[in-house]
Amino acid sequence: MAAIQVDGLTKRFGETVAVDDLSFTVEDGELFGLLGPNGAGKSTLINMLVTLLGPSEGTATVDGHDIVDDTAAVRNSIGIVFQEQALDEELTGAENLAFHSRLYGQSAGEREERIDEILDLVGLDDERDDPVGTYSGGMKRRLEIGRGLLHEPAVLFLDEPTSGLDPRTRRDSWEYIRRLNEEAGVSVVLTTHYIEEAEQICDRVAVVDDGEIAAIDSPGALTESIGGDVVSLELDGSTATLRDRLAAQSWVSEFSTADGGLRVTVDHGRQRIADLVRLADDAGVPVTAVDVREPNLETAFLSLTGATMAEREADEADSAASDDGEAVVGAAGGDR
Ligand code: ADP
Ligand code: MG
Questions:
Q1: Rounded to whole angstroms, how far apart are CA atoms 50 and 83?
Q2: Positions of the region Disordered (predicted)?
């Protein structure tokens, strides 16, 4: 049985389509990532799957239970760690877990055994009797993840599990997430806007952009699917003629307009720089800067969505700012 089966799931907030007709499957035991910039619809999707938000259209099952008709069974099958931290800082790590264990109605004996197992799994044995207020950000996150596993759920949902952690702590957290996926045998669905996180720990990744899934595959296969390096050309002038010329070149796999220039996908990008500069000169638009990126999940995202994650996040921030009537900074560009 699949851990999660999603079929035509849609969520609208007024005019906004936050999740747009998604269908996909998460296999049992998988570590599955939803990768996308802020505002892509990741949290909305997760909130529907954990039964906190009703879908506008479509259906889904979690551990075989329908998210609309069978909410109680879904809630029993899942653990959740939200983006915002929710721990009692006055209580110790063990006490925080005990509190939740009581909520789930575990017996005292079961409780103690389970808490020991969990503290061991998330590496907080030595700090079990320290107040959580003394924990580092990474330790708090691990405790929350452990808490999500207390009642042995079939599926664990982690919404931005390493957001706000420093890069080193983030890396450490990846190890724990992988470990609990393997050792506790729990299927994991996590959301992230960190490309490296998706690349490093996920078995499969859904690239989410603007409420839709642009692609879904293993990080390696997504990277390979680009089929070349991405050469970014910063250009001084209209790109119309150059675009016509690029379209006529057999060695150009793909190109798109970018803020202040063009992005061209070609094999052996470095060796094509001279050709590209010459084409631009012939088209009467001088190249002011060149950047070559080898395929990775970052360039895969770029090639799938036509923008980098950072650009998408800037768009989202700009639209939020203009919603508030504030000035939009640095959003010029698009097609020239
Ligand atoms: P992500 O988690 O990928 O950052 P979200 O799911 O939070 O994205 O948001 C997706 C879109 O839905 C955004 O445009 C956001 O502003 C909008 N949205 C999310 N929740 C609500 C809500 N409760 N009411 C109105 N709009 C919402
Ligand atoms: Mg979110």
A1: 14
A2: 311-336
